[in-house]
Amino acid sequence: MIEVKQLVKSFGSLTVLKGVTLSVEEKEVVVLLGASGSGKSTLLRCLNFLEFHEAGEIWISGEKVDPHKTNLNHFRAEVGMVFQHFNLFPHKTVLENVIEAPVHVKGMKVAEAKELANELLKKVNMQDKADVYPDMLSGGQKQRVAIARALAMKPKIMLFDEPTSALDPELVGEVLQVMKQLAKEGMTMIVVTHEMGFAREVADRAVFMHDGQILEQGPPSAFFENPQHERTKQFLRSIR
Amino acid sequence: MIIDIFLNSYPLFLKATWLTVQLTAVALLLGCIVGLIIAFFRISNSKPLNYFAHLYITVIRGTPLIVQICILYFGLANMVTLSQFWAGAIALAVHNGAYIAEIFRGSIQSIDRGQMEASRSLGMSYPLAMRRIILPQAFRRAIPSLGNQFIIGLKDSSLVAYVGMQDLWGTGLGEAASNYKQLETYMVVGLYYLVLIMLFTYFVNRLETRLAKGKTLRKQAKDTSVAA
Q1: B-chain residues within 8 Å CB-CB of A149?
Q2: What are chain A's domains?
Q3: The complex's ipTM?
Q4: A211: closest CA of chain B, how far (Å)
C-alpha cells in the first residue's frame, strides 16, 4: 500500500528524518511512537507531501511519487489526513466542511455529496450538528467532523497526526472510538499518538522512532511487553 | 452666513458630491483589484514578482499622492488620451492599491497555516484552496482595515481638484474664490465630506457586526425553528 525507502528530510541544518524505511500493508493499522522531535509527524507529513522529502522514495499503491514531478493533488486525495488541531474550515458549516472537497475536487454533484456527508456524519455520530459552525463544537466533536471530512474523499489510507493531543481528557475517548471503528472496517491507518491503550488494542504494529530513524517495531504485544532497545524501554517507562 | 452659503450652493455641491462618490467608488474598486494582485505577488514564491510588488509599494507609499496625480494627469496624459475623470480615478486606484495590497497580504498571512494544509491534504490545488478557503476568511478579517483605508481614500480624492476636477473640494475652491467667503464655504465643504464618511462608516460597522454575528444568528435561527 505505502512503501517508504531511506527517506531523508531536513529543515535547514537540522536533519529530521535520517533514512526511514517503512512499509504498510493494506488494512494494516500502524502506530508511530516516539518522543517529540523524533520525526513521527514529519514522516506523516512527507507521506501526504505537505513536506517534500530530499532523498529516498515514497511508493503509493505501486506508484513511485516524486513530489517535484507528480501531480500531487491526485495522491493527496487518496491519502486522508487528520490533524492535531482539526483545521476545520471555520467559515463553513459541518456539512459544508465535509462536502467541500468531494464537490470541488472530485466534481461530485452537491446532492450526492450531501448524501455521502450525512452518511459519514452519522458514522462519526455528528449527524445532529450538520448545520452548525465549527466554533460551536467541542474539540472532540471537531475532530470527529475532521475525520468525516477526510473520509469523504474515500482515501485508501488515513494518516492521523496526534489526533487526540489537543483534546480535553474526557473527550479523547469519543475520537478513539471512531478510529477503532474505522480500523475494524479495514481502513489502512498510520497513527501518531501517545495513547498507549489505543496502540495496544487496535494497532497491528507499533513503530518506535528515535532521532529520525526507526529504532524498533513489532506487534504491540511484543513491543510493549518485551522492548529490545534501551531507548524504547526508557520511552515506555516515561509514558507509563 | 454659513446657512446662506449652504442654501445658495447646494445644487452645485450635490453635483460635486456625486462626482466625488463616483470617482472614489471607481478608484477604490480598481484599487482593490490592484491591491489583491500586488498582495499575491508579494506572497508568491517568485522572486521577480516579489521584487516588483515590493518596488511598487515602496514607490507609491514613498511619494505624495498629489505628485502621483500630477504625473498621471500632466505627464502621461500627453502620451495617452486620458479623460480627467479616468486620470484621477487611475491615480487614486494606483495609490490606494499599494495600501490595500498590504492590508490583503496581512490578512491572508494571518490565516492559520493549518487551513491551507488541510485544504491541500484533501486534494485541493493551491488556487482552489486560496479561492474557497483562505480568501473568504481573509476578506472578513480585512474589513475593518479596509473600511479605514476607504475613508482615507475618500478624503484623499479631494486632491484631484488640483488637476481641475470639479469634485467636492474643486467646487469649494471655485465657490470661495468667487464669493470671498472662504471660512463659510470651506466649512460647508467639510460638512459634505463629514456626512459622506459618517454614512459610509455606518454601513461598514453594520457589515462588520453582521459578519461577526452571522454565525450566531444563523445558529439561533435554526435553534428557534427547531424549538417551534
Answers
A1: 122
A2: 2-239 (3.40.50.300)
A3: 0.91
A4: 25
